[in-house]
Amino acid sequence: MRIGVVVHGPNVIDSGYALKLINLITEYGDVSVRLGGTMGRTAVIDNSLENIIDISRKLVPSDSLKIFHDDCVDVIFLLNYGKSSTTGQVFGYKVYTHYKNKIKNNNIPVIQIERPGESDGSVINWASESNLAKEFADKLNLKIVTPKEVYETHIRDDEKGETRRTIHGVSTGENIMVNSIVIGKSTSDKLTLVSKDNYIVEIIGGEIKPHGVEKLGEVNLKTAIVKTGLLRKAKVTPRVLDAEKSDDFKVTFLDHAGEDVYKHRDSSVVITIGDDTTLIASDILYRFNIPIIGITDGDLDKVVEDGFKSKNSVIFEVESGNDDIVGGLIHRNIFNNKNESFDFKTIGEVSQKIIEIINNRNIKYTINKI
Asked: 195: left (phi > 0), else alpha (psi -120 to 50), else beta?
């Protein structure tokens, strides 16, 4: 039997269940494993699983499912560990729906294993009934939940209009991230995002962060990736790998946390724009011993438990609301509106140029060197 396994997010990896489940699934046939999600990639690295879980491409879970479908495997497993049974089951519904819209023949069983080890954990057989679903539910002491139950319990009432999206499993005081941009904070455990003409206009049960919504711009709420709380909860010891750096001193530019940070792993230094982007990117790039020059304005939303930064990193904190302005000036003056430059030899030279750019605009700032 040929089996595809899609692992989503860091929690199922950090808990140790990803490896346990992969080993169990391997008893049934030939297994290939892929990952979905950026923070999951750091978990794979920290747990030394990159030879087991393929992290070579940045793929959303539905695309990983489609790859296995196109490879004509016999069954696909989706491994996830949501914050709650509700968030995990709703996640599975959305992933399966996106996947189903990308394929022609829906004839391969898709089995989700959700929150293994928890009392509310479950197994869901999304497509083409398979006896494996019940077999794994019995082995793992998890309950079987049907797609109809997920739809009737969590989804049906949310499909009244295209401009509203209810977010499940939220706690008060959590950050709300849409496509990796923090757009607000929850004030209730009942949260609904509202958009008009593809722009977020209201958060019911939460407070909007205007700068975040502005940075997010146009968005399709039906397909957007929405997360709340911390991207990765586990306290970890990051694993630092040998960097694949360019022979020349390469400076690259990153202004959006949703970009594939891993494509910058051959850089000598990465300039990051915005508090959240700087926090996420520096934490990932720490694994490759790559310093960052971060442009922030002190408007930080905690999206990871610990934010690691490589030695020699430099953080510029500019006056509130000026990080994007300075970022635009850097992109134009240092990179000529491109995303890489070989015009410098040291981080000090890059930092000095940024100081000149900021001083020319008379923007106040402080510098923190790591």
From this structure: beta
Statement to judge: residues 298 and 204 lie in one domain: no
Q: 125 with 218, same domain? A: no
DSSP state of 281: H
Distance of CA 276 to the CA centre of its chain: 12
pLDDT in tens, the chain (370 residues): 999 999 999 999 999 999 999 999 999 999 999 997 767 899 999 999 999 999 998 888 999 999 999 999 999 999 999 988 888 998 999 899 999 999 999 999 999 999 998 999 999 999 888 999 999 999 999 999 999 999 888 776 554 445 688 888 888 989 898 987 889 999 998 899 998 888 899 999 999 988 889 888 888 887 788 888 876 777 778 899 876 777 899 999 998 766 678 889 899 999 999 888 898 899 999 999 999 999 998 866 555 556 789 999 999 999 988 999 999 999 999 999 999 999 999 999 999 999 999 999 999 999 999 8
d(Cα 254, Cα 87) in Å, to the nearest integer? 30
36, 146: one domain = yes
Cβ-proximal residues to 68 (8 Å cutoff; 6+ apart), any chain:
4, 6, 32, 34, 76, 108
Cβ-contact 132, 98 below 8 angstroms: no
User: Looking at the 3D structure of the chain, how many domains does it have?
Assistant: 3
Name, in order, each residue with C-beta under 8 angstroms of 280's C-beta and a sequence gap of 6 or more: 38, 180, 231, 257, 261, 303, 304, 307
How far is residue 324 CA from its own chain's centroid?
Answer: 22
CB–CB of 276/257 below 8 Å? yes
Q: Whole-model pTM?
A: 0.77
Q: Which domain holds residue 10?
A: 2-154
Residue at which a domain ends, from 97, 121, 154: 154
Task: Judge whether 66 and 8 are in contact, CB under 8 Å.
Answer: no
Residue (of 300, 301, 298, 270) closest to 284 by Cα position: 270
Do 259 and 269 meet the contact criterion of CB atoms below 8 Å apart? no
Radius of gyration for the chain, computed over Cα atoms and rounded to the nearest angstrom: 22
Q: How far apart are CA 156 and CA 144, in angstroms?
A: 20
Q: State the DSSP code for 151.
A: I
